[in-house]
Write a structure and sequence with these properties.
With 139 residues, this protein is mainly beta. The protein has one domain: 7 Propeller (Methylamine Dehydrogenase, Chain H). 0% of the residues lie in helices and 53% in strands. It contains no helices and 14 strands. The strands form four sheets. Strands 4-5-6-7 form a four-stranded antiparallel beta sheet, with no helix packed on it. A four-stranded antiparallel beta sheet has the order 8-9-10-11, with no helix packed on it. β1 and β2 form a beta hairpin. The radius of gyration is 15 Å and the shape is globular. It comes from Gemmata algarum. Keywords: Repeat, WD repeat.
Length: 139
C-alpha cells in the first residue's frame, strides 16, 4: 500500500503498521510483487526500483532502458516483469534473478502503456505519440 512517498508491505512483519520503505523524493507510480514475494518492484521517477521483502531494503534498479519507463506489467505467474519506455522499447525481466531476459523495439515512438493478457501469451503496448496500440505473441 502506498501512502504519500512511503510504502507499507503486506502482510506486516509484526503487529505494527508494517515495513516503511522510503522512496526519497519520488512518488511511486506503480507497484508489483514478484511471484515468490521476495521483491517489490516500484515504478518511481521513470525507473524500476527493486526492494527486498520482508524488510523493504533497497536491492537495485533494473537498468537497460535509455528513456523514462512509463509502464510495467507482470505475467500472470509473476515470473516476468515487462516494462515500456519512452525509448520505444519493451523489456522483459526475470523477477527471480533480476536480469534482463529480452528486448522488443517498436517503430511507434515513445511508449505510454503496457498490458499482458491473463493467459500470459499476448502483450499490448500503446503509443500516444503515434496513436497506436500494438499486440504481439509472447510465445
Amino acid at each position: 500500500m502506498a501512502i504519500g512517498r512511503q510504502f507499507w508491505h503486506w502482510p506486516p512483519v509484526d503487529s505494527s503498521r508494517g515495513t516503511n520503505i522510503e522512496t526519497k523524493r519520488y512518488e511511486p507510480e506503480d507497484l508489483a510483487f514478484s511471484a515468490d514475494n521476495r521483491h517489490l518492484f516500484a515504478l518511481v521517477g521513470g525507473k524500476i526500483v527493486v526492494y527486498g521483502l520482508p524488510g523493504g531494503l533497497y536491492r537495485t534498479k533494473l537498468k537497460g532502458h535509455t528513456g523514462r519507463i512509463t509502464a510495467m506489467a507482470l505475467t500472470p505467474d509473476g515470473s516476468r516483469l515487462w516494462t515500456a519506455s519512452r525509448d520505444a522499447t519493451v523489456k522483459c525481466w526475470d523477477t527471480h534473478a533480476l536480469t534482463l531476459d529480452r528486448t522488443y523495439t517498436f517503430q511507434t515512438g515513445g511508449l505510454d502503456c503496457l498490458a499482458v493478457s491473463p493467459d500470459g501469451n499476448v502483450a499490448a503496448v500503446g503509443s500516444g505519440q503515434k496513436e497506436t496500440i500494438t499486440l504481439w505473441d509472447l510465445g
